[in-house]
C-alpha cells in the first residue's frame, strides 16, 4: 500500500518529467535531459559477493562445521555428565509407595495435611551447591487459559488491582464477593507440598539439612515484578478485604510469616510457581542447599529421609510428583542432549563433507579449468 | 481537461496523461457497423443546447440547459465526512483485508481470544491505515488539482455587462459563449462559432488527449462561416441539437437550427474538446456544448487498469493452499484438544481453567472454540505482509527498470515507461511476442526512395548507397538486412532526398513548357502525356494529403501568404496574419486589450517569440534540422510528409494549405493556388484518399487519388486508348512488385478529370451525404466510391521504412530465448515478407508456408494440407512422442497441453518453418471451426507473419493464442491500430515513436525503441520474475516455518492454543523482524549478470517454464519449512526438557532461532550479496535484539500474559542460549544447503551455469560466450559448448534433466537444423531441374523490360539474377493465380515429397507465364497459395 503510494507519486513524476522534457525541445534548452544517473546502485551494478553453491565451494564449510561441533559436543557432554542428579518420585501411585495413602485420600478439599516420608540413598556425595527441585509431570501449566489467569498488576502491589482484580482471573477472581488475592488459576493451584530433607548418618540419627528458601526466584521477579501492596507494613492489614484463593489453606500473608521479605506476594515459592512452566513435565526450584565451607561435601553419600507434607493432589490428572537433587554447572542442570546433538550434527556434517568431496572429485573437477577453452 | 493529480500549470500549459484512457474507435468498414440501428435507438436521446444569454438566470426555470452538468469538476472520491466509511468500504473489497479484520475481531470474543485483542488489531489497523493515508493523500492531491482547474480563468459572455468577462472555469455552463485566445486551454467542449482566422479555422493541439503533437484544424460551423466581421452573441438565437455526452473523441454529430428554420449539420470538426490548446489562432468564440464531467475528455478519463500477473495468479493458488493447510492444522488441534479434554473425563484438573462464568465446557464445545482460537494463532500462515511486500518490491523493480541507462534513448531523450506497475514479473515469462511491423520493427521514418512515373522508373540513389541495387533487389532472401540496416541511423530523414537528375530535368522541362503555354495561353492538353503525367504526379504528391505547413521560425504559426506570389525567401517575413489586412477584423479585436497583446506578441521578432510562446512545440520525435526560412510540414502520417518533401526536392513545394485552397510552388510557374473542393480522407477500407481540386491552369476539376496499389490498380480506367497506357499500367505494376520485394512501401498515384456535369452530379449526392445525420459515414463512403473510379494512373512511389537499429539482433536473441515471434502487420505480403527477411524473422534456409485463400473451404483445405505436410515432413525427423502429438491433433482439445509446458513433453515442436498468411485468409482461419487447425499449423512454425491484418484481427490472433495455447503473450506496437492488440495481450508494449501516443497510452510498458525489448525481457523480465518468484516462495516458507513452531507446541500444551512465542513477537515477526532482508533480496538479487543474460538468451527459458516457481516447489518449501520448524522446536525442547524453564524464557530462544534460521535460509537463497544485503540482515538481527531488550525491560506488569520482564536479558547471560543459536540454524539448514551444493554440481540449472560463467574471469567468459554463440547459431551443433560446464551424470539415468541446458526445445531445434541443412544440400543439387522453364521465361521478361525502360537497373548483374532466381522468382512462377495449390516440399529427392494442388478453375491455369510475374497475389484475390523454399 505504501508501494501504491510511491507508485502514484512516482508515476506523476515520470509524467511530469516527460512533459517538461518534450516541451523543452523547441523552447529553452536548459531543461535537464531525462537520462538516468549512471550510478552503481541505479544501474544495479553494486559490488557484490556472488557465492555459487557447488560441492567444491561448500565442502570446506561442512568440514569446518564438523571439526568445530564435535569438540564442542564432547565438551558439553562431559560437562553434563559431571553433574550429579538424584530424583525421587513420591507421588504415591504404587501401593508400596510410602505416600500411597496420602495420594489416595487427598483432595483439594481436605483440611488435614497428610505426611509421608521417603527414604533414599545417595551413592555419591554431592560436592557443590545442591539445588532441590520439585518436579511435576503431566501438569499443563502452559495451558492457554491457565497461563492467562493472573493479574500482574495485583502481584505488583497495585492497590486498586488488589481490590479489583483483572477479569483475566475469572473464574478465580472473587470468592463470596471478596476479591481473591492473589487471583487467578495459577495462584490458585500453587504447589503446597512441604519437603524436608534429613540426613541419616550411620547411627540412624536424623540430621535436618538446612534448606535455603531464599534466592530461588529470579532477582527481577522478587524485587521488581512482585511486590506487596505498599502502605501498611502489616500484611494482614494490607490484605484486608481480600480473600484467599479457594484451594489455599492459608491466606497469602501467611505464606511465610517468619520472614517479612518472603511473605505475601514476594514469597519466593509463590514467585517460582507463578513463572509458568513451558512443558507439561517440569521442575521448579524448591530449595538450595548451600555448600558448607571446607572440604565436606554438601550432601555426603548415605541414607536420607525426605519428609513430605502431602498437600498437592496430582493423581486426578495422572500427574507425578518428584523431588530432585542436582548440582549445576555453568551450563545449568544435567542435560546430555546438547552435547549429543553437537556431536551428531558435527559427525553428519563431516560425513556430508566427505560425500561432497567425492562428488566434487568425481564431477566437479573439470568445472574450473579443464573444459574451458582459453 | 483531465484531472487526477498530475496537473501542472505553467501558466497555460496543462499536462496530464496519467489515468487518461482514450477510446480510439476502430476505423472499420461503415458497411459493417450497424450505424442505423444505433442511431434509431438513440434518436430521442439528444441534447438540446440554447444560448444562456437568452435567459435571465443560467439555472432559471425556463432555461432548457439547467439540467446539464456544469463545468465544475470533482474527481475526488471522498469528502471529509465520507472518507472513513467509504475508504474502509473500499478496502474491504479486498478479500485479504476482510479476512484479517475477521481474525482480529475474533480476538474480542472472550472464549476464543488468543491474543490481547488490541494487539491483534495492530497489524490490520496498520495495513488499513497506511492504505487510508495513501488514499487520503491522493485524494487531497486530486482535490487540489481540481481546485486549481476549477479556478482557471476564461472569458465568458455576460448578459448583464454585454461583454466578455473573466470567469472561473467552474462557473462556465452549457450554453455560455466563450471567447478563447491563442494558447488558451479549452475549459469545456465548445462548438466553434467564429474564429479570428480569415479562413474560419481554429487550430488546436490535442496532445493532452491523444498525444498527437501535430495541429488539428477545426472549422467554424458552416452557417457562421459567412459572417463577415463580428460574431455578436446577442444576435445568436439558434438551437443546437447534438448527441448525448459520450466518450468517443472522434465523433460528434448534431445540427444547428436557426431561427429561419434552416438546419446545418455539425461535425467533429466543429467541436473543440476540453483540454486541447488553441494554437495559431488569435481568437475564437464558441458555445459550450458539454461541460465538466460530461466533456469527452472527462468521459475518457478512466482509472489505471489493474492487471494480475501470472505469478500472482499462481501465488493465489498457493495462498489458497495455505488456507487449506491452516484449516487442517486448526482442525487437527481442535480434535486433539477435544480428545485431551475427554481423557480427563469428569475430573477437571487444576490447570484446565473453567470459562469466565465458571461453567464447565464440554470437550466438544472446547474443541469448537479452540478451532477459532487456532485460526487466530496460526493467522500468520496467511501472510498479511506478503501483499504489501510484493507491491513494494514491484515498485522498486519498476524504479530500477526505469533507471536503466540501456533503456534510455539519447536521440529522443526518452526512456522506458512502466505504465502498469504490477506486472513486471510477467516480462520474464513471455512465450509469444506479437509485433507490429511499421514503426515497431522499422523506424517509421519514411524516406522517399524511388518512383515510377508514366511507366518509367526513376531510382534515387541517395549518397550512392544503392550501387549494388540490382543484386539486392533480386535477392530478397540474402543479406537484405545489410542493405537496410547498414545505413547510418538518423542521417536520413524524410526531407533528405536527392532528386533523380533525369526526373528533375523532366520536371523542369515540363514546367517551363507549361509556363510557356500559359504565357501564350495555349491549352495545356497539348503537353506530351508523359510530361503532363510527371507534373500531375508531383502536384498529386503535393496536394493529395492533409499536410499542414508551418514555418520553423514561428512555431505553430500557420504560414499565411497573401494572394500575391512571393518568392520563397520572403515567405517567413510574409507571415502576417491576414486578419490584420482586413479592416473589420482589427476592429473586432481592438476593444479587447488581450487580443492586441497577442498581436504584439506576434509582431515581435522571431527569436524573441520563443521566449514568449508559452508552449514550444513538442517535436520530440522530429528532430528536424530545419534551415532558416524553410517550411516545415506536419503530417498525420510520415508517408505523407515524405511524399511532400520528395515533391519539394523536385521544386514542387507545398507552401500553404487552407481549407479551401492549396498553394503549390512550381518551377517557372511560381505559386499556383488550387481550389480545394473536397478532401476524401484516408480510411482503411478504401485504402486511399482523394482530393478534388480545380486546376488553376486548366481550370478542370481534377481528382487526385493516392492509395494502396492493390486498390488503385483495380480502379484504373480500362486501357481503351491503346497499347501505351496498358503497358504503362503493366510496367508500373512490375515496378511495384519490385519495390515491394525490396521492402518498400508502395503507393499509387492516379488522377481523374471530371467534366462539369459529372462533378455537379456527384456533388449533389455528396452534399446530401454530408448533411445526413444518420448513417453519414456510410453515405460519405459510398460517395467516395462513386468518385474514385476510372482513374488515370500517374505513377507509383516507393517509400522506404528503414529497420530500426538492432532489430535483427534483437529478434535473433529473443528467438534464442525461446520466444515465438509473430509479426502482425497491415502491410502487404511482399513488403512484410521482405522486412521479415531483413530483420531475420524469416531465414533463408527456412521453408515458408504461405496461406492465401479466398474462401472458407479453401482455407480449411489449405490448413489441412499444411498440417499434413508438416506431419509428413517432420514425422520422421522428430522423436516419436512428437508423432504421437501430431496424431492427437485432430482431437481438438487434446492438441493444447496444459498451461505448464513441462520441458520434457512439449508435444509441439517448433520447426524451422515460416508461416505467412494474409488478412483475408486470416479472417477465415480465425473462424471458430478453423482456429484450432490454424493454431496447430501456426504453432509448429517458427515464425508467423500475418499481413494485411486489421486491428481487430490482430487482437483476435493475440486472444486466440492467449486463450487456446494458455501462453503468455506480449504485444508490441506503436500505432493506433495496435491498441486493441496491446490491450488484449498479457503485456502490452508501446513504442513511443512517430505515430502519436495512442499505443503508449494503452500499453503497460512504453519503449523508445524495439531493440530495448531485448534487455527489458531478457534481463529485467528475468530478474523481476526470479526475484519475485523466489521472494514469494520464501514468504510462504517463512510463514509456514514460523507457524509450524506453534503447531508442534500444541502437542505439549494439551492443544490448548497456547503459544510459547510472545504475542508481540508473533505479530511483529513478519512486519518488522524478518521484513527487510527479503525486500532487499527481492529487489536487488541478481541470479545472473545482465551481460550473461543478454549473451545467453537461452536463460530466459527458465522463466517461460516457470522454473523458479513451480507448484511442486511450494510443497518442497512447505516440507522444508516443516522440517526446519521441527528442528527449531525440538532442539530447544530437548535442551530444556525437564528443567525449570518457564514458558516464555523457553519461547524467546525459539523465536530467536527461528529468526536466525529464516535469515540464513534467505542467505542461502541469495545469489548476490551487496552491502545492502549484509546491512539488512544485520539490521534485522539488531532490531530484534534491540526490540526484545527494550520490550523486556520496559514494563514489569504489562504485556499480560507473557509478562516477559527481563527475559531476554537473562537469556543473554545463559551460555545454553548461545549454544542453541549455533547448532539449531546449522541443523535446520543442513539439508537445503547440502541439496543446493549437490544441485550446483550434479544437475545445475541453466541459470546456475550462467552464474558459473559470471564467476569466470572476464576474458575467459568472453571466449566461451563468443564460442557458444558461434556454435549455437551453427546448425550442426546439437549441444552448445558451455554445456561442458554442466556435468553429465555418468550413467545417463536422467538425461533430460541434467542436460536441460539447452532445454529440449532448443536441442530439438538444432536437430532439426541439421536435418534442414542436409536437405538444403540435397535441394540445391536438384534445384536447377525444377524451375527451368520459368527461369527462362523470367529472363525473357527482364530482357524485355531492359529494352523498354532504359533506366531499369535490375538487369545489370545477370549473375545475381542467376543466383537468386530459383529462390525469389520461383515464387512468382508458382503462384498461378487461378490455382489453389500447396506446393510444399522442396526436397524433391526424398520420398516424402507431398504435393497438393487443386485447380479450382482448370481452364485458367494456363495463362501465359510472362504475365504472371506482373500479377501479384493481392491484385487477383483468387485462391492462390504458394510455398517457397
TrEMBL record, chain A:
Membrane topology: Multi-pass membrane protein
Main location: membrane
GO biological process: one example: phospholipid translocation
Alphabetized Pfam families for the sequence: CDC50
InterPro entries hit by this protein: CDC50/LEM3_fam
Region of interest called Disordered, as start-end residue ranges on this chain: 12-35
Key word Disulfide bond present: yes
Annotated GO CC locations: apical plasma membrane; endoplasmic reticulum; Golgi apparatus; transport vesicle membrane
Keyword Metal-binding listed: no
Residues that span the membrane, as ranges: 52-78, 337-359
Lineage: superkingdom: Eukaryota
Subcellular location: Apical cell membrane; Cytoplasmic vesicle, Secretory vesicle membrane; Golgi apparatus; Membrane
Keywords: Cell membrane, Cytoplasmic vesicle, Disulfide bond, Glycoprotein, Golgi apparatus, Lipid transport, Membrane, Transmembrane, Transmembrane helix, Transport
Protein family (similarity comment): Belongs to the CDC50/LEM3 family.
Designated name of the protein: Cell cycle control protein
Organism name: Sphaeramia orbicularis (orbiculate cardinalfish)
TrEMBL record, chain B:
Region (Disordered), start-end ranges: 580-614, 1281-1335, 1376-1429
Membrane association type: Multi-pass membrane protein
Record-listed E.C. numbers: 7.6.2.1
Listed cofactors: Mg(2+)
Residues annotated as binding ATP: 436-438, 640, 682, 706, 745, 825-827, 948, 954, 977-978
Domain P-type ATPase C-terminal: residue ranges: 1000-1245
Entry's localization field: Endoplasmic reticulum membrane; Membrane
CDD domains in the record: P-type_ATPase_APLT_Dnf-like
CC per GO annotation: endoplasmic reticulum membrane; phospholipid-translocating ATPase complex; plasma membrane
Compositional bias ranges of the Polar residues kind: 580-598, 1305-1314
Name of this protein: Phospholipid-transporting ATPase
Lineage of source species: Eukaryota, Metazoa, Chordata, Craniata, Vertebrata
Amino acid at each position: 500500500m505504501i508501494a501504491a503510494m510511491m507508485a502514484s507519486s512516482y508515476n506523476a513524476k515520470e509524467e511530469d518529467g516527460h512533459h517538461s522534457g518534450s516541451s523543452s525541445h523547441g523552447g529553452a534548452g536548459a531543461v535537464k535531459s531525462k537520462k538516468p544517473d549512471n550510478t552503481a546502485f541505479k544501474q544495479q551494478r553494486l559490488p557484490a559477493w556472488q557465492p555459487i553453491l557447488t560441492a567444491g565451494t561448500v565442502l570446506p564449510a561442512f568440514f569446518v562445521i564438523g571439526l568445530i561441533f564435535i569438540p564442542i559436543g564432547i565438551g558439553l557432554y562431559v560437562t553434563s555428565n559431571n553433574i550429579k542428579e538424584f530424583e525421587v518420585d513420591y507421588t504415591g501411585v504404587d501401593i508400596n509407595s510410602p505416600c500411597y495413602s496420602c495420594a489416595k485420600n487427598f483432595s483439594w478439599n481436605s483440611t488435614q495435611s497428610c505426611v509421608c516420608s521417603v527414604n533414599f540413598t545417595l551413592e555419591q556425595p554431592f560436592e557443590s551447591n545442591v539445588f532441590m527441585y520439585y518436579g511435576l509431570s503431566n501438569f499443563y501449566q502452559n495451558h492457554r487459559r491457565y497461563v492467562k489467569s493472573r493479574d500482574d498488576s495485583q502481584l505488583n502491589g497495585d492497590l486498586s488491582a488488589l481490590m479489583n482484580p483483572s477479569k483475566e482471573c475469572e473464574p478465580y477472581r472473587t470468592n463470596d464477593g471478596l476479591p481473591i488475592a492473589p487471583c487467578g488459576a495459577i495462584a490458585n493451584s500453587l504447589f503446597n507440598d512441604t519437603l524436608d530433607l534429613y540426613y541419616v548418618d550411620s547411627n540412624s540419627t536424623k540430621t535436618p539439612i538446612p534448606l535455603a528458601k531464599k534466592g530461588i526466584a529470579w532477582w527481577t521477579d522478587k524485587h521488581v515484578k512482585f511486590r506487596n501492596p505498599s502502605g501498611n507494613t502489616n500484611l494482614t492489614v494490607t490484605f484486608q478485604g481480600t480473600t484467599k484463593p479457594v484451594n489455599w489453606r492459608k491466606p497469602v500473608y501467611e505464606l511465610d510469616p517468619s520472614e517479612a521479605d518472603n511473605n505475601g506476594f514476594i514469597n519466593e515459592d509463590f514467585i517460582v510457581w507463578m513463572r509458568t512452566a513451558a512443558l507439561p513435565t517440569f521442575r521448579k526450584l524448591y530449595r538450595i542447599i548451600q555448600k558448607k565451607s571446607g572440604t565436606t561435601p554438601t550432601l555426603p553419600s548415605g541414607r536420607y529421609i525426605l519428609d513430605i507434607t502431602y498437600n498437592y493432589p496430582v493423581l486426578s490428572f495422572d500427574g507425578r510428583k518428584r523431588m530432585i537433587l542436582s548440582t549445576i554447572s555453568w551450563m545449568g542442570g544435567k542435560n546430555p542432549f546438547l552435547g549429543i546433538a553437537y556431536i551428531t550434527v558435527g559427525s553428519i556434517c563431516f560425513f556430508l563433507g566427505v560425500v561432497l568431496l567425492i562428488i566434487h572429485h568425481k564431477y566437479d573437477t573439470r568445472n574450473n579449468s579443464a573444459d574451458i577453452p582459453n | 481537461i483531465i484531472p487526477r493529480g498530475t496537473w501542472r500549470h505553467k501558466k497555460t500549459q496543462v499536462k496530464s496523461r496519467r489515468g487518461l484512457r482514450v477510446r480510439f474507435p476502430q476505423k472499420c468498414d461503415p458497411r459493417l457497423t450497424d450505424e442505423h440501428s444505433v442511431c434509431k435507438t438513440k434518436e430521442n436521446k439528444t441534447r438540446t443546447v440554447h444560448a444562456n444569454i437568452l435567459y435571465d438566470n443560467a439555472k432559471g426555470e425556463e432555461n432548457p440547459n439547467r439540467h446539464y452538468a456544469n463545468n465544475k469538476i470533482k474527481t475526488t472520491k471522498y469528502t471529509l465526512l465520507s472518507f472513513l466509511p467509504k475508504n474502509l468500504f473500499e478496502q474491504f473489497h479486498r478479500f485479504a483485508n476482510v479476512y484479517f479484520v475477521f481474525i482480529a475481531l475474533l480476538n474480542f470474543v472472550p472464549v476464543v481470544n488468543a491474543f490481547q485483542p488490541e494487539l491483534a488489531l495492530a497489524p490490520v489497523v496498520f495495513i488499513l491505515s497506511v492504505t487510508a493515508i495513501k488514499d487520503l493523500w491522493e485524494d487531497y492531491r486530486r482535490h487540489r488539482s481540481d481546485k486549481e482547474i476549477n479556478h482557471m480563468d476564461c472569458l465568458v459572455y455576460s448578459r448583464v455587462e454585454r461583454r466578455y468577462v473573466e470567469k472561473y472555469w467552474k462557473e462556465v455552463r452549457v450554453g455560455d459563449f466563450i471567447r478563447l485566445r491563442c494558447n488558451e486551454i479549452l475549459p469545456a467542449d465548445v462548438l466553434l462559432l467564429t474564429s479570428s482566422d480569415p479562413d474560419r479555422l481554429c487550430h488546436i493541439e490535442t496532445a493532452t488527449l491523444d498525444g498527437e503533437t501535430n495541429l488539428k484544424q477545426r472549422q467554424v460551423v458552416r452557417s457562421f462561416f459567412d459572417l463577415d466581421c463580428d460574431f455578436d452573441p446577442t444576435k445568436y438565437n439558434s438551437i443546437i441539437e447534438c448527441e448525448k455526452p459520450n466518450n468517443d473523441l472522434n465523433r460528434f454529430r448534431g445540427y444547428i437550427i436557426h431561427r429561419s428554420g434552416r438546419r446545418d449539420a455539425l461535425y467533429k470538426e466543429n467541436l473543440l474538446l476540453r483540454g486541447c490548446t488553441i494554437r495559431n489562432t488569435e481568437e475564437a468564440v464558441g458555445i459550450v456544448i458539454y461541460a465538466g464531467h460530461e466533456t469527452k475528455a472527462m468521459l475518457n478519463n478512466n482509472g489505471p487498469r489493474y492487471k494480475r500477473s501470472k505469478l500472482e495468479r499462481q501465488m493465489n493458488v498457493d495462498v489458497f493452499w495455505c488456507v487449506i493447510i491452516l484449516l487442517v492444522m486448526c482442525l487437527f488441534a481442535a480434535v486433539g484438544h477435544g480428545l485431551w479434554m475427554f481423557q480427563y473425563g469428569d475430573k477437571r484438573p487444576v490447570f484446565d481453567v473453567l470459562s469466565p462464568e465458571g461453567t464447565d465446557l464440554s470437550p466438544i464445545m472446547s474443541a469448537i472454540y479452540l478451532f477459532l482460537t487456532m485460526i487466530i494463532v496460526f493467522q500468520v500462515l496467511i501472510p498479511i505482509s506478503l501483499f504489501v511486500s510484493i507491491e513494494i518490491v514491484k515498485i522498486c523493480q519498476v524504479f530500477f527498470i526505469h533507471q536503466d541507462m540501456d533503456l534510455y534513448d539519447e536521440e529522443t531523450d526518452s526512456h522506458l515507461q512502466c505504465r502498469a506497475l504490477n506486472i513486471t514479473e510477467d516480462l520474464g515469462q513471455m512465450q509469444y511476442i506479437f509485433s507490429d511491423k511499421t514503426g515497431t520493427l522499422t523506424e517509421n521514418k519514411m524516406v522517399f526512395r524511388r518512383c515510377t512515373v508514366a511507366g518509367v522508373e526513376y531510382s534515387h540513389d541517395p549518397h550512392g548507397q544503392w550501387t549494388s541495387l540490382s543484386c539486392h533487389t533480386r535477392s530478397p532472401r540474402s543479406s537484405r538486412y545489410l542493405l537496410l540496416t547498414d545505413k547510418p541511423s538518423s542521417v536520413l530523414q524524410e526531407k533528405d532526398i536527392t532528386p533523380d537528375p533525369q526526373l528533375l530535368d523532366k520536371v523542369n522541362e515540363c514546367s517551363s513548357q507549361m509556363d510557356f503555354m500559359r504565357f501564350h495561353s495555349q491549352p495545356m492538353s497539348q503537353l506530351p502525356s508523359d510530361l503532363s503525367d510527371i507534373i500531375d504526379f508531383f502536384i498529386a504528391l503535393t496536394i493529395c494529403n492533409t499536410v499542414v505547413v508551418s514555418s520553423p521560425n514561428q512555431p505553430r504559426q500557420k504560414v499565411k501568404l497573401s494572394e500575391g506570389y512571393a518568392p520563397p525567401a520572403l515567405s517567413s517575413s510574409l507571415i502576417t496574419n491576414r486578419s490584420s489586412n482586413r479592416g473589420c477584423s482589427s476592429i473586432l479585436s481592438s476593444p479587447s486589450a488581450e487580443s492586441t497583446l497577442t498581436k504584439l506578441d506576434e509582431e515581435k521578432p522571431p527569436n524573441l517569440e520563443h521566449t514568449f510562446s508559452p508552449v514550444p512545440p513538442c517535436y520530440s520525435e522530429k528532430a528536424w534540422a530545419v534551415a532558416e526560412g524553410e517550411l516545415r510540414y506536419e503530417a498525420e502520417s510520415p508517408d505523407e510528409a515524405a511524399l511532400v518533401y520528395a515533391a519539394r526536392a523536385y521544386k514542387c513545394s507545398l507552401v500553404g494549405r487552407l481549407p479551401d485552397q492549396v498553394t503549390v510552388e512550381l518551377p517557372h510557374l511560381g505559386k499556383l493556388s488550387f481550389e480545394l473542393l473536397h478532401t476524401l480522407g484516408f480510411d482503411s477500407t478504401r485504402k486511399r484518399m482523394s482530393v478534388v481540386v480545380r486546376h488553376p491552369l486548366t481550370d478542370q476539376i481534377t481528382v487526385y487519388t493516392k492509395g494502396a496499389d492493390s486498390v488503385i490498380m483495380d480502379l484504373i480506367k480500362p486501357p481503351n486508348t491503346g497499347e501505351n497506357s496498358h503497358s504503362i499500367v503493366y510496367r508500373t505494376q512490375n515496378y511495384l512488385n519490385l519495390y515491394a520485394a525490396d521492402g518498400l512501401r508502395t503507393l499509387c498515384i492516379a488522377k481523374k478529370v471530371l467534366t462539369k456535369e459529372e462533378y455537379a452530379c456527384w456533388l449533389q449526392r455528396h452534399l446530401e451525404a454530408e448533411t445526413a445525420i444518420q448513417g453519414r459515414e456510410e453515405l460519405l463512403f459510398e460517395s467516395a466510391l462513386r468518385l474514385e473510379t476510372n482513374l488515370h494512373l500517374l505513377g507509383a512511389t516507393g517509400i522506404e521504412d528503414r529497420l530500426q537499429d538492432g532489430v535483427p539482433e534483437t529478434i535473433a536473441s529473443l528467438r534464442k530465448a525461446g520466444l515465438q515471434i509473430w509479426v502482425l502487420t497491415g502491410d502487404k505480403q511482399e513488403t512484410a515478407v521482405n522486412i521479415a527477411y531483413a530483420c531475420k524473422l524469416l531465414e533463408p534456409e527456412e521453408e515458408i508456408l504461405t496461406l492465401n485463400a479466398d474462401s472458407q473451404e479453401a482455407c480449411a483445405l489449405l490448413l489441412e494440407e499444411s498440417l499434413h505436410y508438416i506431419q509428413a515432413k517432420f514425422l520422421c525427423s522428430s522423436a516419436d512422442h512428437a508423432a504421437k502429438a501430431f496424431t492427437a491433433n485432430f482431437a481438438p482439445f487434446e492438441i493444447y497441453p496444459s498451461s505448464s509446458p513441462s520441458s520434457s513433453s512439449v508435444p509441439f515442436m517448433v520447426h524451422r518453418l515460416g508461416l505467412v498468411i494474409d488478412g483475408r485468409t486470416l479472417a477465415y482461419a480465425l473462424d471458430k471451426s478453423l482456429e484450432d487447425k490454424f493454431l496447430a499449423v501456426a504453432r509448429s512454425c517458427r515464425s508467423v507473419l500475418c499481413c494485411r491484418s486489421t486491428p481487430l484481427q490482430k487482437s483476435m490472433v493475440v486472444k486466440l493464442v492467449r486463450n487456446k495455447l494458455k501462453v503468455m503473450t506480449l504485444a508490441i506496437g506503436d500505432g493506433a491500430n495496435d491498441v486493441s492488440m496491446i490491450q488484449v495481450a498479457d503485456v502490452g508494449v508501446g513504442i513511443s515513436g512517430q505515430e502519436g501516443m495512442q499505443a503508449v497510452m494503452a500499453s503497460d510498458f512504453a519503449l523508445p525503441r524495439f531493440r530495448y525489448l531485448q534487455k527489458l525481457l531478457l534481463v529485467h523480465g528475468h530478474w523481476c520474475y526470479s526475484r519475485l518468484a523466489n521472494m514469494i516462495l520464501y514468504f510462504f516458507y517463512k510463514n509456514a516455518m514460523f507457524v509450524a513452531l506453534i503447531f508442534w507446541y500444541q502437542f505439549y500444551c494439551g492443544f490448548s492454543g497456547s503459544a510459547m512465542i510472545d504475542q508481540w513477537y508473533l505479530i511483529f515477526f513478519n512486519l518488522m523482524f524478518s521484513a527487510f532482508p527479503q525486500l532487499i533480496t527481492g529487489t536487488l538479487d541478481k541470479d545472473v549478470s545482465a551481460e550473461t543474460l543478454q549473451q545467453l538468451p537461452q536463460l530466459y527459458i527458465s522463466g517461460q517454464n516457470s522454473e523458479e516457481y513451480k507448484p511442486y516447489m511450494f510443497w518442497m518449501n512447505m516440507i522444508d519449512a516443516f522440517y526446519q520448524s521441527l528442528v527449531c522446536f525440538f532442539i530447544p525442547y530437548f535442551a530444556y526438557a525437564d528443567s525449570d524453564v518457564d514458558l516464555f524464557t523457553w519461547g524467546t530462544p525459539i523465536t530467536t532461532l527461528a529468526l536466525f534460521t529464516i535469515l540464513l535460509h534467505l542467505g542461502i537463497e541469495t545469489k548476490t550479496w551487496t552491502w545492502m544485503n549484509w546491512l539488512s540482515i544485520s539490521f534485522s538481527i539488531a532490531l530484534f535484539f534491540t526490540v526484545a531488550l527494550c520490550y523486556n525491560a520496559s514494563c514489569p506488569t504489562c504485556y499480560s500474559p507473557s509478562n516477559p520482564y527481563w527475559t531476554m536479558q537473562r537469556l543473554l547471560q545463559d551460555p545454553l542460549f548461545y549454544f542453541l543459536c549455533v547448532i539449531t540454524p546449522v541443523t535446520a539448514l543442513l539439508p537445503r544447503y547440502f541439496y543446493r551444493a549437490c544441485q550446483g554440481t550434479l544437475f545445475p540449472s541453466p541459470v546456475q551455469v550462467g552464474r558459473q560463467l559470471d564467476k569466470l574471469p572476464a576474458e575467459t567468459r568472453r571466449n566461451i560466450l563468443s564460442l557458444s554463440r558461434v556454435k549455437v547459431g551453427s546448425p550442426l551443433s546439437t549441444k552448445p559448448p558451455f554445456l561442458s560446464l554442466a556435468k553429465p551424470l555418468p550413467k545417463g539415468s536422467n538425461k533430460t534433466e541434467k542436460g536441460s541446458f539447452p532445454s529440449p526445445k532448443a536441442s530439438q531445434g538444432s536437430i532439426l537444423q541439421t536435418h534442414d541443412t542436409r536437405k538444403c544440400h540435397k535441394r540445391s543439387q536438384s534445384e536447377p531441374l525444377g524451375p527451368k522453364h520459368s527461369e527462362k521465361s523470367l529472363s525473357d521478361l527482364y530482357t524485355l523490360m531492359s529494352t523498354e525502360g532504359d533506366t531499369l537497373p535490375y538487369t545489370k548483374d545477370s549473375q545475381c539474377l542467376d543466383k537468386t532466381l530459383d529462390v525469389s522468382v520461383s515464387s512468382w512462377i508458382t503462384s498461378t493465380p487461378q490455382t489453389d495449390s500447396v506446393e510444399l516440399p522442396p526436397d524433391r529427392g526424398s520420398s516424402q515429397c507431398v504435393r497438393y494442388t487443386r485447380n479450382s478453375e482448370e481452364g485458367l491455369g494456363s495463362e501465359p507465364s510472362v504475365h504472371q510475374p506482373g500479377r501479384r497475389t493481392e491484385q487477383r484475390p483468387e485462391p492462390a497459395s504458394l510455398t517457397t523454399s
